[in-house]
Each structure stands twice: as structure tokens, then as C-alpha cells.
Specification:
The chain is α/β, with parallel strands linked by helices. It has one domain. Helix content is 40%, strand content 18%. It contains 9 helices and 7 strands. The strands form 2 sheets. The chain has a 5-stranded mixed beta sheet with strand order 3-2-1-4-5. A two-stranded antiparallel sheet has the order 6-7. β6 and β7 form a beta hairpin.
């Protein structure tokens, strides 16, 4: 199995699940740079934050994931603002910079703009050290659908039913993933007076694990949602979202 890492933002830091040989672990990192220092030798890192920004218009891969998920889950996909909007000083300025104007900036997206900037800056600064296809963008809900016969999980991940459904999918992939989830919850949410992540953020551990399970198949085995002409001119890389479609 590949040295694979899945990464998700968890409120005050990054949760990373790593799979190497028979070992699966969940860790916490305050910054992407800290994470990279730990996992720079990973074969593949999948992260649930936009990679690649357009100069104008909506990213084709965002629209493709919305279409693939459909139903109730399509609302879990936020449309990524344009590069000028991402680097605006506040949301009102971002909306004014957005092109076209009717493509507005969602409040939920603005909440993660600092993370988009962090990853964008990291990828630009360390481009020479990052291997081709070593760090890619993925969406947890699409990854769960890929492992679930192409069917998205309808229940929200923030509910008990949604958590149990997602853990059942992880267990079907590899029971060690569920064990890693339980260990990660204990390690990162305790003690309750000084947790690394809040108890309400344990669903981000689940998301990191499904990204790691996807990454374990290797970049060559992943399906890529993208448009041929869609490329970030600053990072000089395609704009795409990947997942694994189990047979």
C-alpha cells in the first residue's frame, strides 16, 4: 500500500491521516508547512481545500462534483472564488472583485479563505520540492461515494447516522481505518479542557481517513474531474478534483 496522506481542516489546525504498509495514524498539524515537514516523502497527499484558482468564472471541477453528488450532498460543495477575490481584504471587496459579478462569494467559502491562501502560497513557494501529482485536491463526500458503489451518503456527516454510515464505508475498505478513527478521537479531543480539536470536529478525522484511503490507491488509479483547458496560470498546474471509483 502506498505511503498515503489525507488532510482536512479541523477548525484550528489540520488533521492528517496517514497510511503506510500496515500502519494507519491520525495526527494534528497547526500549518501546512508543519505537515509537509512530516510527510514530504509521501507518495500522495490528498487535501480537502481548493488547489488551483481561476482568473474568472467558476471552476469546472466544482460544478462536476456538485453534479456527481446530486441530491442533498451537492450542497457540501462550495464554489471556489477567483484568485483576485481570494486575496481580497474582506468579503465585500471579494464580492466586488469576483468575475462575473453574479458569481458571488459564499459566506461558508470566505470562512476557509485563509486556508486557501495558506495552501496556495505553500504550493507556490515549494513548487520545486513537490513532485508531480504529489499533492492533489479531493472532496471527502465524493471519495465516500466512490467507495460506496458510486452512491453518495445522504445523511449529513455531522449527525450520528451520517457518522455511522461513513465509518461503515471505511470499515468495508479496511477495518484499521475505524481503529485509527477511534484512536484519533481519543488523542485529539482529550483532555476535554485542552483538546487539539473540539469534539464537534471529529467528522474531520473521518474525512481525513477517507482521503488517505483514496490516496492509498495511487495517483495513477484516480479519476480526475477537470476541464482540459482549466489551468491555474500562477501555479502552472491543472485545476482538478480526484477520487477513486471502486468496482
Amino acid at each position: 500500500m502506498a505511503n498515503a496522506v489525507g488532510v482536512d481542516w479541523a477548525g484550528n489546525g489540520w488533521v492528517a491521516a496517514s497510511i503506510e504498509a500496515e500502519s494507519t495514524a491520525v495526527e494534528f498539524f497547526p500549518t501546512i508547512l508543519n505537515l509537509w515537514r512530516r510527510h514530504r516523502d509521501a507518495d500522495l497527499v490528498l487535501i480537502d481545500i481548493p488547489i488551483g484558482l481561476r482568473e474568472s468564472g467558476k471552476r469546472a471541477c466544482d460544478l462536476a462534483v456538485k453534479d456527481a453528488l446530486g441530491g442533498q450532498r451537492h450542497g457540501s460543495v462550495f464554489l471556489t472564488p477567483t484568485r483576485e477575490a481570494i486575496y481580497a481584504p474582506n468579503i465585500e471587496a471579494a464580492k466586488a472583485r469576483q468575475d462575473p459579478a453574479e458569481f458571488s462569494v459564499q459566506n461558508q467559502v470566505w470562512a476557509i479563505v485563509p486556508r486557501i491562501r495558506e495552501l496556495d502560497g505553500f504550493l507556490h513557494e515549494f513548487a520545486a520540492q513537490i513532485g508531480t501529482d504529489q499533492i492533489l485536491e479531493a472532496h471527502p463526500e465524493l471519495c465516500f461515494a466512490g467507495f460506496n458503489g458510486g452512491t453518495p451518503i445522504e445523511a449529513s456527516k455531522s449527525t450520528e447516522a451520517g457518522r455511522d454510515a461513513r465509518l461503515a464505508v471505511l470499515k468495508s475498505v479496511d477495518p484499521h481505518l475505524v481503529e485509527a478513527y477511534e484512536a484519533g478521537v481519543d488523542r485529539l479531543t482529550e483532555p476535554s479542557y485542552a483538546p487539539m480539536i473540539g469534539a464537534s470536529k471529529t467528522d474531520d478525522i473521518v474525512d481525513a481517513l477517507v482521503l488517505a484511503a483514496t490516496a492509498a490507491h495511487g495517483a495513477d488509479q484516480l479519476t480526475r474531474l477537470s476541464a482540459k483547458a482549466e489551468r491555474d496560470p500562477v501555479l502552472d498546474r491543472p485545476i482538478e478534483i480526484v477520487y477513486f471509483q471502486a468496482e
